[in-house]
Amino acid sequence: MGPGIIQRRPRFRLFLYFFVFLQLLPVHAAAEISLSEEVELGRNFNIFLRSSKTIIHDPEVTDYVEYLLQRILAQAPPQPLRFNINVIRDDTLNAFAAPGGYIFLHTGLILNLRNEAETAGVLAHELAHVTQRHIARRIGQARKIGLLTAVGALAGVFLAGNNDTLPAIISGSVAAGHSAMLGYSRIDENEADQLGYNYFLAAGYPPESMVEAFKIIQRPQWITGTEIPVYLSTHPDMTGRIADITARIQRRPSSPNEKKTYDNERFLRIQTLIRGRYANPETTLQFFMEQRKGVEAALACLGLGLLYERTNRITDAQQAFEDALRLRPEEPLFLREAGRFNYLKGDRNAALELLQQATAKNPSDYLATFYYARLLADAGQKEQAIDCYKQILRRQPEESETHYYYAQILGKSGRLFQAHLHLAYSALYENNAPKTEQNYLRLHSLAKSDTDKEELLLFEKKYAERRSFWQ
How far apart are CA 314 and CA 274, in angstroms? Predict the structure, then answer.
């Protein structure tokens, strides 16, 4: 299957027919679950997703999508939910809002949209689903189902067809039927379009960009035979909705003083990172070689460096990173990526100089801090490295690699309980069941103090939550 494409399985097709029928059923506000129930379901769905999908942890990406979310959310009425947005490493063209304020974008969506405004248009639509509690209302209709079945049903709505781990959790007619019930209705979609459009416009984006985003999602080349983009399978009647939004834009009175602005530079940076690290190597090479001829030559060089590194063309990668720094010598992201590359290829002196500059220019970039901490640890500066790792884990408590290297230096410092605790967390967030269990069992014999035992209990709780989705 190519990027952005899913293939419907026969079982999925059966409950898709049921889903179409249920779209015509009315949804009563009285069926809505309570806010606390929605938050709990959303929290568990988030745990499930993290147990089965890869979440992007790069701060360049996470900080940017958080900025987009907050820019649009500021235009909505005050909300009782705490919102959380993440990017999933997945080629499919998809975005969705889960219960409890959790919003997810796929890397495939980001790569196929052309600018920040189009991305914000999709995000505004998803945010409106949350503010109107569409899924919460439909869950209320299925109130008697258990928590795991509800999570599996949601997975069937948002992810079915593009994840090999899904059949186990959505198998059987019960979860399949509930997946159909939880899908958005045409009324839901129209309401999300209308309110999302209002949020989007108030945030200062050009209204046409929302239409352009939906047109890209609906491009004919995405629909061949039985394969459709995930977004179209979960968001019905795209053609009619595009027409409705277009008509609404045409009815808008013109306002010469109205400013519609956005800076596309950050969007292009995260596109470069995602494409360079994850996209098809052949098409990625062609893209960056063409881009290098234009005004985005510096980003093209950065992307080529990432691509060459990934495909083990180390000499070419070195040259590409040098070219990128020559064009943008003060750019923190470029300094970070060149520093990281030099560290991994063994040139620690060059890495130290570059990463010191990167962390000084952007102290919030915990990925630069992570590689700087590894340099400190290599140089025997254990306490300084430990402080760096603590700083990162305060911002990203589920970052597996940070737990792993933090555990290494704790072990060398003789703090064995803490070392195995962080090895256990590293394995847990890497979804490595055997290693998690191995380190968990070791912790029992190492926990001596009351503090150790309290930390062990906290780990046991997190382990139990994730383990329920592994089984």
Answer: 19
Lowest mean pLDDT among 36-45, 179-188, 377-386: 179-188
Pair of tokens at residue 13 = 């097709």
Picking from 374, 386, 441, the residue whose alpha carbon sits closest to that of residue 410 is 386
Residue 205, helix vs strand vs coil:
coil
Q: Which of 17-21, 134-138, 449-453 has the lowest mean pLDDT?
A: 17-21
CA 78 to chain centroid, in Å, comes to 24
* 3-state SS class at 84: strand
Neighbours of 236 (CB within 10 A): 17
* Extents of the domains making up the chain: 6-251, 397-471
φ, ψ of residue 32 to 5 degrees: the values are: -65, 135
Phi-psi region of 87 (alpha: psi -120 to 50; beta: other; left: phi over 0): beta
Structure tokens at 197: 């459009």
In a 3-state reduction of DSSP, which class is residue 259? coil
**How far is residue 408's CA from residue 415's CA, in Å, rounded to a whole number?**
10
Please tell me the distance from the alpha carbon of residue 133 to that of residue 32, in angstroms, as a whole number: 8
Q: Which one-letter amino acid corresponds to residue 180?
A: A
* Tokens linked to 32: 């809505």
The answer to whether 93 and 109 have CB atoms below 8 angstroms apart is yes
Per-residue b or e along 443-469, where b marks 16 or more CB atoms closer than 10 Å to that residue's CB: beebbeeeeeeebbeebeebbeebbeb
The secondary structure element, H or E, covering residue 416 is helix 416-429
pLDDT band at 192 (very low <50, low <70, confident <90, very high): confident
Q: What is the pLDDT averaged over residues 405-434? A: 96
Say whether 104 sits in a helix, a strand or coil. Answer: strand
Q: How far apart are CA 207 and CA 254, in angstroms?
A: 12
Element (H, E) at 390: helix 382-395
- What is residue 131's three-state secondary structure? helix
Q: And the tokens for 458? A: 């906290």
Sheet holding 84-88, edge to edge: 84-88, 102-106, 95-98
Which residues of 54-204 form beta strands (DSSP E)? 84-88, 95-98, 102-106
101: left (phi > 0), else alpha (psi -120 to 50), else beta?
left
Q: Are 430 and 400 in contact (CB under 8 A)?
A: yes
- Give the residue ranges of DSSP H helices in 183-313: 186-202, 208-217, 230-234, 238-251, 265-278, 281-291, 297-310
Contacts of 264 (CB under 8 A, 6+ apart): 115, 116
User: Which of 218, 249, 213 minimizes the C-alpha distance to 126?
Assistant: 213
Q: What are the angstrom distances between the C-alpha of 298 and each of 289, 328, 356?
A: 11, 7, 21
